[in-house]
Amino acid sequence: MKTEIIVIGDELLIGQVIDTNSKWMAAELNKQGWEVTRITTISDGAEDIKEAISSAFSRVDTILMTGGLGPTSDDVTKPVLCEYFGGRMIFDEMVYEQNLRYFAGRGLQMNQSTRRQAEVPDVCTVIPNPVGTAPIMWFEQEGKVLVAMPGVPHEMRVAMKGDVLERLRRHYGDNDAILHRTLMVFRNTESGLSERLTDFEAALPPFVKLAYLPIPGVVRLRLTARGNDEDLLQKTLDEMVEKLRTILGDDIFCDEDMTLAGALGKMLKNRGLSIATAESCTGGNIAHEITAISGSSAYFNGSVVAYSNEVKESLLGVPADVLAQHGAVSKEVVEAMATGVKQALNVDCAIATSGIAGPDGGTPEKPVGTVWMAVCCGGVVVSECGHFAGSRAYIIERATQRAIMMLIDMLCGRSGK
Amino acid sequence: MKTEIIVIGDELLIGQVIDTNSKWMAAELNKQGWEVTRITTISDGAEDIKEAISSAFSRVDTILMTGGLGPTSDDVTKPVLCEYFGGRMIFDEMVYEQNLRYFAGRGLQMNQSTRRQAEVPDVCTVIPNPVGTAPIMWFEQEGKVLVAMPGVPHEMRVAMKGDVLERLRRHYGDNDAILHRTLMVFRNTESGLSERLTDFEAALPPFVKLAYLPIPGVVRLRLTARGNDEDLLQKTLDEMVEKLRTILGDDIFCDEDMTLAGALGKMLKNRGLSIATAESCTGGNIAHEITAISGSSAYFNGSVVAYSNEVKESLLGVPADVLAQHGAVSKEVVEAMATGVKQALNVDCAIATSGIAGPDGGTPEKPVGTVWMAVCCGGVVVSECGHFAGSRAYIIERATQRAIMMLIDMLCGRSGK
Q1: Which terminus of chain B is more exposed, N or C, with fewer CB under 10 A?
Q2: Residue B148, by phi and psi: left (phi above 0), alpha (psi -120 to 50) or beta?
């Protein structure tokens, strides 16, 4: 099935907010085996909306639309859709009742403009919105479907997962089960991996597809099986995963799709290990990545962001003479930070960074982008110096991901396989 | 001037990466007084690209395009543009020389596919790319302009700032100077502010525009002056800013457009104050925001991410009985964290957080989204309890921004105006 996404909002066209909805929707649809062929971002203008719909329907049968469903007068999506599909606006008591409860639950009063949220075109099926006041609308005409959802990311996601995807599957008679398995692989380039898997790919059953999804330093291998016999799909995927394990061995470091910090967290949890970080140039970003994972308190004790040398000495116990002799951005200091935070926070493993994120502060010997990273676990300490090119934000991000990967690498080696 | 943006890349249509380019470009164009009327994301397919160009040129005279300029065979933008504009591919010695230097500077060898980066259509003006190997291409036909730029964000930004915007201005005979001034305002809603500024707006000279750009808790007021007399523009903007200062007084907390952490950093720097953070549920994100600002080492000493109670006690000196009596998510603990980190890191100001980011860990008394935040400066401590609704990432982000804003608020009060 092919679908287009239309994103509505003046705020997107002036660059005020970033559109995260279409990426998320595209990824979800892709998992279903559906194809997003175009994403169009347009203004809140009635003519633009109508033109974009006509144009998209000339190419595909399904449109998913977000935005323009707020209660204020600049949100015109609802009346425009009503006119486009030849309906008239009616007052939906069910939506009204639900919104009354929604407001009451938050101790709020409904005013005239929020009351209008219950007005809907009579030519659509209303899908209740459990986490907001804008109704989700399903339009169907001459075999074509348009689903209008709120632009608030949380509301859109709940709608998609709750009802919209399921209705789309029913509508298109798509009764296949779809199962995914993702393996995260390191120490391989995408092209190198593809060579190693030539025979594996040639022998895949026709109902299983393999996708390569690279991120820096990692290739995610996603197996997708599709068919009406769910048990068979499950069994086949299990076999394929085993085959991949045989071929790739320890290069597989995680058996589900998650962030590097998520993969690290899973390893730590499985082995009952705890962790802390000591961060200079990454400024807390590694801790932020680790704690972005729900349940991370089971293994993450904390972090010392040691931006000043004073803090490196007082909280991490980096000797003053080591700092003076080698400078803060050095193998010696970053290793002392790693072992220092491990001891201070009484944990099993630690990650440390010290570098020059720029744009100022570089020297000929240590230019901007020079980052020393160290990891330790038990009595072993490993460090390396990275040279990252780009903006300050990019250098921080790359150093963060590389440092996490270093600990994953160490833990994989330590596993004794 | 109206322009459309076309973003090319299969990876965007399967939701593998997020498009940050179009937001950035739209914001830059908006600052120039130009209007982005549509953003279209399409696949790397030749037909899609040609159709999208034709369609966009039927609506506007200018297209800015990113992506599909890599050296691999799936990047077809260059030959497609060549065909569209009726040219043939030639080998550009200047691009080749530059790419040779680019590779040499990184200690890399150029291979056959990277050598092909120097092939360009003979119907475009090549704009050198100082930070990458893909040439930027300027096509001009019958008064219409298409600029093709790499999809790598850093390369695109350098191209836009370096040459593309300037050429667009020249092409459209747009010789006006454009000056901006942004004031960041808090303690006001957008509609409340708009009422307070009714007379101010009515009295604005015709060459000055005022835009309201809200983010949670803040409205950014952007004044844009446009004309050929730069001195007059400058003088008028200075006067307008003074008028706004008279009307809004202390509600203006920053006189340039930046993140909240940037505005806080500017205040701290101006007053010679230092800062540290003590973070539980925000997990290092406040430190990350502060250190995202270049030059933050001048005022940021460091941070203790105290996820476990053990760390709250050992590094921040939160008394065990206070933790036992009130629980980690409490006014008493978060205030002790703030004063504790202020003392431990020997700074003037501190921010602390302790809350439940979810999705697990909530209780009827302290549901998910409950976050205690404290700020202190000198001997004064202020705390408040936030109730944020949404995903774990959203709760962390909102608590981060609110906590930073609390310290800004305190510093504004302390300024004695």
Answers
A1: C
A2: beta
In terms of residue numbers, what domain contains B348? 260-414
User: What is the predicted pLDDT for the residue at B54?
Assistant: 96
Residues facing B119 on adjacent strands: B91
What pLDDT is recorded for position B17?
87
Tens of pLDDT along B135-173?
Answer: 999 999 999 999 999 998 889 999 999 899 999 999 988
Determine the residue of chain B that is closest to A39 in CA distance.
Answer: B41
Q: Contacts of residue A340 in chain B, CB cutoff 8 Å? A: none
Tokens representing residue A373 in the block? 């990273």
Percentage of chain A lying above the pLDDT 90 cut: 78
Residue B387 confidence (pLDDT) above 50: yes
On chain A, the residues whose CB falls within 8 A of the CB of B399 are: none
Q: Same domain for A212 and A123? A: no
Is A39 in contact with B12 (Cβ distance < 8 A)? yes
Closest C-alpha among A398, A356, A350 to residue A375? A350
Measured between beta carbons, the chain B residues lying within 8 angstroms of A396 are 288, 291-292
Domain edge (last residue) among A254, A284, A316: A254
B232 and B110 inside one domain = no
Give residue B347's pLDDT.
97
What are the beta bridge partners of residue B163?
none
What is the pLDDT at residue A332?
Answer: 98
- Kindly state whether residues A314 and A340 are assigned to the same domain: yes
Provide the pLDDT for residue B105.
79
Looking at the structure, tell me whether residues A9 and A156 fall in a common domain.
yes
B277 neighbourhood in chain A, CB within 8 Å: 284, 305
Neighbours of B143 (CB within 10 A): 8
Closest CA to A67 of A27, A20, A112: A20
Given an 8 Å threshold on Cβ–Cβ distance, is A396 in contact with B291?
yes
Q: Which of B171, B201, B231 corresponds to the end of one domain?
A: B171
B12-64 pLDDT per residue, tens: 998 988 999 999 999 999 888 889 999 999 998 999 999 999 999 999 999 99
For chain A, what percent of residues have pLDDT higher than 70? Answer: 99
Q: What is the CATH number of the domain that holds B243?
A: 3.30.70.2860
CB contact under 8 A, A23 and B18: yes
Q: B121 and B58: one domain?
A: yes
HSE, CB side, 13 Å, CA atoms: give it for residue B74.
Answer: 7
Cβ distance of A284 and B296 shorter than 8 Å:
no
Residue of B nearest to A282 (CA): B288
Contacting residues of B for A15, CB less than 8 Å apart:
22-30, 36
Q: Which residues of chain B make contact with A111, given a CB cutoff of 8 A? A: none
Residue of B nearest to A387 (CA): B106
How many domains, chain B?
3
Q: What CATH number is attached to the domain comprising B42?
A: 3.40.980.10
Q: Which one of A5, A41, A50 makes the best mutation probe of the B interface by having the most chain B beta carbons within 10 Å? A: A41
CB contact under 8 A, B291 and A305: yes
Residues B128, B129, B135, B139, Cα dihedral to 10°:
-60
Residue A273's pLDDT is what?
98
Q: Which two structure tokens, joined as six digits, stand for A249?
A: 């061995």
Residues B218 and B242 in one domain: yes
CB-defined contacts A:B, below 8 A: 232
CATH code assigned at A341 = 3.90.950.20
Q: Stretch B205-217: mean pLDDT, rounded?
A: 89
| pLDDT tens per residue, range B232-284 | 999 999 999 999 999 999 999 999 999 999 999 999 999 999 999 999 999 99
Find residue A177's DSSP bridge partners: A227
Phi, psi angle pair for A389, to nearest 5°: -115, 135
Residue of chain A nearest B388, judged by CA positions: A106
From chain B, pick out residues whose CB is under 8 angstroms from the CB of A310.
301, 346
The H-or-E segment that residue A13 falls in is helix A10-13
Same domain flag for B157 and B196: no
- Output the CA–CA distances (angstroms, integers) from residue A386 to A223, A406, B43, B411, in the order listed: 33, 11, 34, 38
Shortest distance between the Cα of B40 and any Cα of chain A, in A, equals: 5
Whether residue B289 sits in one domain with residue B356: yes
- The C-alpha of A20 sits at a distance from chain B's nearest C-alpha, in angstroms, of 7
The verdict on a CB contact (< 8 Å) between B287 and A290 is no
